Amino acid sequence: MESRIQRVRAAFASGRSRPVRFRLQQLEALRRMVQEREKDILEAIAGDLCKSELNAYSQEVITVLGELDLVLENLPEWVAAKPAKKNLLTMLDEAYVQPEPLGVVLIIGAWNYPFVLTIQPLIGAIAAGNAVIIKPSELSEKTAKILAELLPRYLDQDLYVVINGGVEETTELLKQRFDHILYTGNTAVGKIVMEAAAKHLTPVTLELGGKSPCYVDKDCDLDIACRRITWGKYMNCGQTCIAPDYVLCEPSLQNQIVQKIKETVKEFYGENIKESPDYERIINLRHFKRILSLLEGQKIAFGGETDEATRYIAPTILSDVDPESRVMQEEIFGPILPIVPVKNADEAIKFINSREKPLAFYIFSHNDKLVRQMINGTSSGGVTANDVIMHFTHSALYPLEVWVSIPLCHSGHRLSRSCCLSDHLSRQPADLYPPCLLRGLPATHGKGPSHRPARRSHQGLTLPSLTFHH
């Protein structure tokens, strides 16, 4: 292991990864890989998560291609030296800031979106001129295998190396010295990564999970709110780090929310959800049993059906959930939606603030003042009003040009700045989301998306700052 890392470090020391032209060539090769081997990539994702070809394309491939296009178009401008402000003592000097890559970056990918959550940070690392060790998740075995097969065929084999394996290989990797480590996954492993990095004073970017609340106000379009919550919660069988983890609402809304989500689930996935090509499966038996244990002692208002042989857990809603129950103490990361009744927005704010800061926070309300109150009164990784998840795709909230200043930014997101949109909140069409919107569209192998969904509501985002060196 150490010798492989040293070879990558020697390749970086040669200076080959630094020229902008070389970076662009590698990014173009990466785009060519995605386009030419799209079918193989989609099959691998489907094999790991029982994901339909259309869902795999819309949830993973589209984002990668979009970010590649954006970086290829803007990278020369981003890497250019920027004039530095001068004072009376330096006014006659030539002063500028020149972004500089850090060196060898370790990317530890995630299994829930095994392609996009590995390739997106790789795009950033290449754009910044770094060498990269890529460690895909061993749980998404088929995607890990296809990445190990394809990346060396398209990218520089000395600078960008894939290392597959399980806990033993990852543990050995973390003993080595890197110039930056990016890990996407759960908090427990994140602590292990941080501890290992501290021994070398290696800077770390952690993309972890959490319990993302969703507040539904009585002054909202409940039909639209429930459709969007349904899409965000049950997409990828609930295995999305920024999915709505639980719902807060006034007691009078609880039964209505249950009924409307129930209707939407049947519309999205049909009467026989288990046979729906749009509904995925839990990644493995260990996670299946963990999620199942969260149902113990709960009041199931909808769903609850399971099949261990196929790792199937039906879309499930829990009502009148005790805030102290186990399902409210850990990230669910599965298709279970608890509803916790609260008196009003003020109580919801207190509830959220009494717990760990969530990765995302969702608010459904027509009352702009209330939305602003909830944003200002809480702290979270991202906030979206009258929608869910979509702040993750909003490039205006994540300026990509900082890629040239730090070794990488996860998903191209700027980690050194806080952003929040204050634009008016808008109502969107109720049939905004797949699978109902995309069902029946033709496959687009290598040609990009053939359908552009309706414009979504405005989002706000805050992210923790990340220090970096030039």
Automatic annotation (TrEMBL):
Coiled-coil intervals: none
Catalytic site positions: 207, 241
Basic residues bias (residue ranges): 448-458
Gene Ontology cellular-component annotations: endoplasmic reticulum membrane
Membrane topology, record value: Single-pass membrane protein
Compositionally biased tracts (Polar residues): 459-470
Region (Disordered), start-end ranges: 444-470
One Pfam family here: Aldedh
One GO molecular-function entry: farnesal dehydrogenase (NAD+) activity
Reaction(s) catalysed by this chain's protein: heptanal + NAD(+) + H2O = heptanoate + NADH + 2 H(+); 2,6,10,14-tetramethylpentadecanal + NAD(+) + H2O = 2,6,10,14-tetramethylpentadecanoate + NADH + 2 H(+); (2E,6E)-farnesal + NAD(+) + H2O = (2E,6E)-farnesoate + NADH + 2 H(+); tetradecanal + NAD(+) + H2O = tetradecanoate + NADH + 2 H(+)
Subcellular location: Endoplasmic reticulum membrane; Microsome membrane
Keywords in alphabetical order: Endoplasmic reticulum, Fatty acid metabolism, Lipid metabolism, Membrane, Microsome, NAD, Oxidoreductase, Phosphoprotein, Transmembrane, Transmembrane helix
Domain Aldehyde dehydrogenase: 4-390
GO BP annotations listed: aldehyde metabolic process; fatty acid metabolic process
Subunit structure and binding partners: Homodimer.
UniProt family annotation: Belongs to the aldehyde dehydrogenase family.
Protein name listed in UniProt: Aldehyde dehydrogenase
Species assigned in the record: Canis lupus familiaris
